Amino acid sequence: xxxxxxxxxxxxxxxxxxxxxxxxxxxxxxxxxxxxxxxxxxxxxxxxxxxxxxxxxxxxxxxxxxxxxxxxxxxxxxxxxxxxxxxxxxxxxxxxxxxxxxxxxxxxxxxxxxxxxxxxxxxxxxxxxxxxxxxxxxxxxxxxxxxxxxxxxxxxxxxxxxxxxxxxxxxxxxxxxxxxxxxxxxxxxxxxxxxxxxxxxxxxxxxxxxxxxxxxxxxxxxxxxxxxxxxxxxxxxxxxxxxxxxxxxxxxxxxxxxxxxxxxxxxxxxxxxxxxxxxxxxxxxxxxxxxxxxxxxxxxxxxxxxxxxxxxxxxxxxxxxxxxxxxxxxxxxxxxxxxxxxxxxxxxxxxxxxxxxxxxxxxxxxxxxxxxxxxxxxxxxxxxxxxxxxxxxxxxxxxxxxxxxxxxxxxxxxxxxxxxxxxxxxxx
Length: 428
Fold this sequence. Notes:
Layout (H helix, E strand, L loop, with lengths): L1 E4 L16 E2 L12 E2 L12 E2 L3 E3 L7 E9 L2 H7 L4 H11 L17 E16 L3 E2 L1 H8 L3 H8 L2 E18 L4 H15 L6 H17 L2 E8 L4 H4 L9 H13 L7 E9 L12 H31 L11 H30 L17 H4 L2 H11 L5 H9 L2 E5 L5 E6 L5
Parallel strand pairs: 1-10
Antiparallel strand pairs: 2-11, 3-9, 4-8, 5-7, 6-7, 7-9, 9-10, 9-11, 12-13
Helix pairs in contact: 2-9, 5-6, 9-10, 12-13
């Protein structure tokens, strides 16, 4: 089992179906309460054209509510939605800026032989708005001089007049190299554990059993994602006793309890049109369609790239103990899929470039590539058991080769520990 801890005082930007009314924060966007915004290029910075009488809280005082959730995640898209990460701005980072922010959660790859779940806590501090926003004198002068085009270039087409602040902490878990039979069994077991209130004692016991069975099946990786708050020191205890929901709950509650409105960060921004100040113009509706397409392009690209890199690793390591048992026909299929996925990635990059240049050429590709059968699912039952033991570090390269030569496999005690080796004849 291994862990990766990522703590960020960030969230992301995403466009809602409504016309430019709601955005989420993203590390590569320059927007803030009172800033200008161009939905055509939401990563573009503008001169500060507004002033106000300050910031007022729109709803209540202190924390509005705190809630917890435990969910199985089937795709990167679901993960981004859970964490309010914008796929469209992540696409801009990945395709055009090379920002590392586009690589969040790259270790959670969502292949057919993987399983991912999330435990999350959120405290919502409500909405804050500008009090009596108005144009600064230089911006008002542009409109008074009928320089509306220059105004839009200087100040933007919209402005941020309200934000929703929150603190969020999430632990994202993944396991890989799981056979289809094992994955189905674990999914059923997980669903039985989370179809109950978060604090339910039965849920905690079932989750512990699920986690222990998952840990016996494959290595488990964990990413900690935090929005707002005090950072990694407070969250470090999460890496111990991860099968214990009481432990996770207490750490999350402790983290949340120490927060204030000052430590919360914007999870969502709301905009108003610059027409409110007399600007003559409007946001093209195609801009929002493009953002939706860019988000889907990002998910397709990252999914295809993860598959491409994993196939590459199999091809490059054909002679390793893990892959040397794959026959020539299977390897040829991997090479053909490697070529197909490489061509598909180039196609997605070309489409992304067209999206950046204009609206009309921004489209999704018309085809999808087939899923890949990974080594553990193309192997026979005896080989699957050997590979599973190898992935859990229960046997090494030499032992794996020896078991293959002798047509043998590991067998286990009821508690899941390795007991010894038996003939493959007992695997059926």
